[in-house]
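Researcher: Next sequence.
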Amino acid sequence: MSASLFTSSAWADIGDTPVIGGVFNASEIMKQQIVSSLTYSTKLTRDITLFTIGGMSLDAYILTLPLDSKTKTRVIAQLSDPTYAIPLGHFLYSFYDRYTGLSDADEFKHYLATIYDEAQLKQFEHSLYHFGSAQEKPSEQETGSAKHQGAHSQGIKADRQFIASMVTIYDALVDIGMWQDMDTVPANYTYLTQSAADLQLVDKIQPIIIELTAKAASSMDAGEMKASVLAIIEDNKPEHKGKVNNKAQALTITLIDFVRLNVLKAYRQFVFKTEREQALNAWMQDTFDADSDALIGFLESQQQRRYSVQVTVDGLQQSLIEGLVDQSNPFIHRAYQMHSRAADFKPQVEVTVEPEHQQQVKFMTQLAKETYRDPNYLPFFKRLYRDNPNSIAQVGISSTPTISVRNLPIIKTGAKVSGEGGTGIPNFHFVDRSEDRAYYFFGNDALQLDRLMDSHGVRTMFDRLDYLITLNCNGQYDWNAHTSYDGLVNLGLGEAQRDYGEKRCTRELQERAKVEVKLRKDRSELIDDIRGYQGISFVDIFTKLTKKWKIEQAISELAKLDGQGMPDHTLIYNPWSDHFAHFTGPFSDEIIMPTGELNRLDFWLDKTEQVYKDAGIYDQTLWGMAGDHGLSPVFYALNPERQVFDNLSKQLGYPLLVKKISSDEGEGPKMTNALNYASNKGVDVVVASTAGGNMMMDFFNAKSGWDQQPIYSDLINWTPINAPMQSDTVDIVTETANSLSESLDYMVIRQRACHAEGCQVRLIGHRDGVRLDELVERRGDKLFYSSTKGGVPKLLDITSLNPYRHSPSQAEIAHFTELQNLCMTQAKVDDVSSWCNVAQWRDLTRYTPRPDSVSQIASLYDEPRAGTINLFPKAGIGFNTKVPGRHAGESFSEKDAFIGFWGTPIGPNANTLKIEENGSLAPTLYEFLTGEQVVPGENGWGYPSLLNKLDIQ
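Model: Next structure:
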């Protein structure tokens, strides 16, 4: 590098800038002068000796895999070719060394045995916990719960057979030239397309995939899973070639994309670390020669730099946690009352069923009736609420619908769903009319999520912080993470091998913490050595040269270790409190007991925090955590498509063409052929359900064309395809509302076409047997909510106080009343200037059972793929579900997502976070880490940073 880059004048531009000159100096240099020079060249790595896999050389490890003899011989023969061996080696490392070397023991269960005695633990038993080393035979009820859990799990089991299968696929891909002659590692992965070359590739790989699948099927017991696998094998027959949604081809496409993507990702991580080490060493050596004071400044800044930890927890609800750590809060009592009157939620006419798993709520009953004192119950969360009362939002907002596939990208990236840089993912499923493609993300379409996000230009924290050291612990959207533990692997193994992903990421951090301690010591000694060197006279040439050589050696060693220290930014994803709450109920013993999932989460959060203390960087770290939604119990369930369309079809005397693209909650995944999927034309309606709390209907009768979303006026004049005459129209809105009058909370429909600048939606629901029609209109930042019949609208409960939270003070009641008067009474439909803005409506609705409801409903259709009609069931009811826990609905316990921050950097004068969106998690941590101001609507940010409210020291 040119020494001119490191002159005093060049450094002045950075060093003279307030704040950046201290804390952010090193990060800025990494970004502008070191990492920016990386080329991701494969050539510089080709002579590097491969590390071991599982303690063995690569060839020895390959010999241990259950490969057929021909494949094994061919692989071994090619290991001398670095273009073949290096990508394979790092791919295997990412799926072997990172996931092995730890016992299968349940670490949390072992911890419980050290703090509770036998009698206590036997009192804490439930379907997910049994006292003792050997689990007792589960009851019939528990067996049913486990069956649904297994059906719902969609992960990857990284065992030897899986790895052998991946090696076989990799070898076949290389054999036909897919990985030859790579001079530069591609910046992005290119998914398979319908090009002739890609289809030829699929044809060549498919027989290999089917052979592997047939071997797997031969060892399966008879049942639903084996039948699904045999159906895939059946589609491989010649007579099925070209069949729409051919599952044999679908599986082949998925596995090719999976292998190629992960090989490339692992290789990119390796090349980045190698090039970064070399560039950092070169920069420090050159800077030492050109301006040793500048190097001292850099090293001191490295010692002072900031760290962030971004914890994302599926299903983490603020008021539930608050109620568990402080029983004076009314949440648990209210939840207990809901369970006590479960029978009151049953519709009298609509046909319903009860979930197969009966919710066990013994512990909630105890909490509701007496004070529970236990220092070992949620100790981390108790300390968190005690020490950080202002920086945990009193009410957290999950965007509508409150579904993970929509909200997890929001809390991980800070991007909105719609608009430039938005995720473009409105729900767990949607129909893309521009390409006539239906997506459903429980199944192999889950692998399309990264592609969809990338196609919309979403920037993840790993993308934004690619010049820093980053770690992904079990999350998704990690293409530019520098070390990554795969979320699908964690899902595949973590249900059966508890603490699977948590143990592996904690081990990673613990190893890095040891290096970090050494790094901080080495930097300090290097700074002293450089200052000592500066004091040596040029006359004493021998001493000065000897000291210089020592410093150069120290710089090289420091550069080697630097990337192995604690990550600047860590993302941790924990899916389990949501995963098990679906099958056992959100307030069940399995979730809230001392042996339940929330206490398990508490245990791992405490262990993670301790690692940062051990590393000596806790005081420089800002922690942030958000949930993507909460959950609500289901006592009765029904299938809306049957309730509406089966009955309507009988009335009309001809069949309605209904296409369902989703599984019911508790059922198994779906498989879609990404290159030959079924068309949605020629059907009346596509329906899909989400997590028991939302059902989305897509109709295709808009006057403006098939690819446009119908509005209210289209839907009340709907002509089914099989109607005898075009004039035989049906008011599908009324038919739906009447058919679901007992179970429907409300439906939401576009009243007018929606776009970024504005939208008007209609809400329809029944209250006390009377249909209510209401309108929410958004124009820019202004909102107007009204009833079509005049008077105060009722469906969003804006005049009701939230029974799950403490009663407001007199001053708060006065403020609530003032806002109601301002937003409802004084607002005039024909005077937009009189309407309340989003912030005022959010302030008003924080007192109600539906926080931020008006704004969320007004923005539901900002993304055109959000469906034609969205149905939300009443409390206690589940749509298309077999399990007792739901979300995606509009009840308070579903919408109230946790968002909070903690750590030494937060000052004593932090502002109280009253009501905040969970999407503010990433922007706040980014602004803390980089010093760059986050502006919503710019640079892909969709949500504000809350850093200015945290009194950062």
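Model: The first strand starts at residue 307 and ends at 313. Confidence is low (pLDDT under 50) at residues 1-21, 45-49, 134-155.
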